[in-house]
Design brief:
CATH superfamily of the largest domain in chain A: Dihydrodipicolinate Reductase, domain 2
Distance between the termini of chain A: 18 Å
CATH class of the largest domain in chain A: Alpha Beta
Largest interface: A-B, 58 and 58 residues
Shape of chain A: globular
Strand order of the largest sheet of chain A: 5-2-1-6-7-8
Number of domains of chain A: 2
CATH architecture of the largest domain in chain A: 2-Layer Sandwich
Number of helices of chain A: 9
Order of helices and strands of chain A: HEHEEEEEHEEHEHEHEEEHEHEEH
Helix content of chain A: 25-40%
Oligomer: homodimer
Strand content of chain A: 15-25%
């Protein structure tokens, strides 16, 4: 029984296969030996016809159409909100489950918002056939705060972010490099992906602002964390800032707990937390840095300190790969939850040959 | 009377004249028409003999010695803590007032710590003849928080900084550029001024850590703000981070007031605050940025928002030139306070011809 379940392979389509996250999704499916029966690479007509090597085969990128989702079990979508809005229903009506990396469905009460280390159980209740992947900064913060919160309740979070160019996509990463070269050559830096120069500069996150002056990125951190933690009243405030770093995000997080918690206790909890790596070399003054977090699966956490301004406060610092755990890895982990569910269903029913995903 | 006071000129020595702050001090004395009878440029023997053009004259840098301070009224010291420890007493014994930019005397209860827009009166009580210039991040934060605090008391401050290379000196700024070039050329970045690469990276401030895990830079923000505000019990916590920016620092500041304060009220107060410029273009999503703050005297403040996690909370964002208002300008402004004091003394006594500085 176990064997037949394990041999069950799924047909996966990646929507937005040429973007920074799409590229990482393809790598992760390979790296994690995801049991594929087929891999379809979908993108806009502009990218159609390009090829990508995968497990010794040459895959050709197809322009997405209604036909694309036939016989597809699982869609990993990372092509932005409007593309997801357009294609998610087409895909689910064709029978696929969609794991969506955009913000299109995250706050939809019929769509679970999942960080596998935090709320894996939520993934199985998906009335629309869609599971949303949270925003990168939200995922990274949830990874560090949830292990503490489930043992010692957190009452308030104040976070400041240091967000890399990758958050705005592969083109933005290239633009940061181009801007840097231009400035070193005393030329004007190009600003297409970003409204202002990011090289040797930084600025508050340029997503649209609401009436209270919070940008979308900040509201994502606030609302998504409440949903993932299932704590609609959790008090949060956020300041999101773009910095001239290529691909990992950093966050300075101030936590107020219900009761005092010692630094040692927090350290103990985070040392045991899955997907979290404690990096604290107090002698060498060495803590998490974006260049060390880049390409890593784990969220690097460190500099845990008693907050000197609050008896129940802790300060902590983290860096995490925005493309990996902040996006593609989390999506693939959600897909792995579905595989598990599928195997359990198979082992319970032992009747169907069709994938239950 | 007024005329004779205004014609009173002072002999100034700059200790550390070749550093980033020293260079800016020289520029500011010129720019602000500081009434000099003489300008002496002092530095380590390594820099002695170099020349600097100033107001049409060529000044030669002297190696600092006990003789250097003869007939000097005012010393602007910016050569680091150990140099100040070594020479401040020599200078004051020779009759000079020392405005010290290092951290050597800042927490000495016999040394006032002054931000002219906040506590100008403190400058006149200087039993040791030394006035300390606060740390750059402290000055910038005090400029934005004090105007609010004096009208609507602040109970708690949680700040995260985004600190430029200039905080580690002129060599560090050059190193950031060299590191950037090296990385663009796929070479190893040099790390002499910084322990880790700063180009396309960032890291918690690398000043020495105390037993609670706070670095010196963070403790400066906490302790110096308390002293400047004369609020020894003010609750503060800080996370200081170095970012790959050349010369202006940024800060994300979360404030908890005793009573609720509206964003409009805060905006009104900060619009009227001296040395502060409100930069908030909500339509264009344009707020203070380091490249705009560089070379400016004003501290740029913006993104004032109600803290969504606290009924008495406000979030604000600032950028300020670390070398200018964060160091050299503040020191020159303190010197200007002394000129004023001198003039008042002269107009009161109308007897002495010697500078009272």
């Amino acid at each position: 029984m176990e064997e037949s379940a394990l041999s069950n392979r799924v047909s996966v389509a990646i929507l937005g296969a040429t973007g920074a996250v799409g590229t990482e999704l393809i790598e992760l499916l390979d790296e994690r030996d995801f049991p594929l029966s087929e891999l379809k690479l979908l993108a806009s007509p502009r990218s159609a016809g390009k090829t990508i090597d995968f497990r010794g085969e040459t895959l050709t990128i197809e322009a997405v159409s209604a036909e694309s989702f036939k016989n597809v079990d699982l869609v990993l979508a990372s092509a932005g909100g409007s593309t997801s809005q357009k294609w998610a229903r087409v895909a689910t009506e064709a029978g696929a489950v969609v794991i969506d990396n955009s913000s299109a469905f995250r706050m939809d009460s019929d769509v679970p918002l999942v960080v596998p280390e935090v709320n894996p159980e939520a993934a199985s209740d998906r009335p629309k056939g869609i599971i949303a992947n949270p925003n990168c900064t939200t995922i990274l913060m949830a990874m560090a705060v949830w292990p503490l919160h489930r043992i010692e309740p957190v009452e308030r979070i104040v976070v400041s972010t240091y967000q890399s160019a990758s958050g705005a996509g592969a083109k933005a990463m290239a633009e940061l490099l181009e801007q840097t070269k231009a400035i070193l050559n005393q030329a004007n830096p190009p600003t297409e992906s970003f409204p202002y120069p990011l090289a040797f500069n930084l600025f508050p996150h340029n997503s649209p602002l609401n009436d209270l002056g919070y940008c979308q990125e900040e509201m994502k951190m606030i609302n998504e964390t409440r949903k993932i933690f299932d704590e609609p009243e959790l008090r949060l405030s956020a300041t999101c800032v773009r910095v001239p770093v290529l691909r990992a995000h950093s966050e300075a997080i101030n936590l107020e707990f219900k009761s005092p918690i010692s630094v040692d206790r927090a350290r103990e909890i985070l040392t045991a937390a899955p997907g979290v790596k404690l990096i604290e070399d107090w002698q060498a003054n060495y803590f998490p840095m974006p260049i060390d977090a880049s390409g890593q699966d784990d969220v690097l956490v460190g500099r845990i300190r008693q907050d000197l301004s609050h008896p129940c406060g802790l300060e902590l610092w983290l860096c995490g790969d925005q493309i990996r755990k902040g996006a593609a890895l989390n999506a693939v982990q959600i897909a792995e939850l579905l595989l598990q569910e599928n195997r359990q269903n198979l082992s319970q029913t032992a009747t169907t040959s069709k994938s239950a995903i």
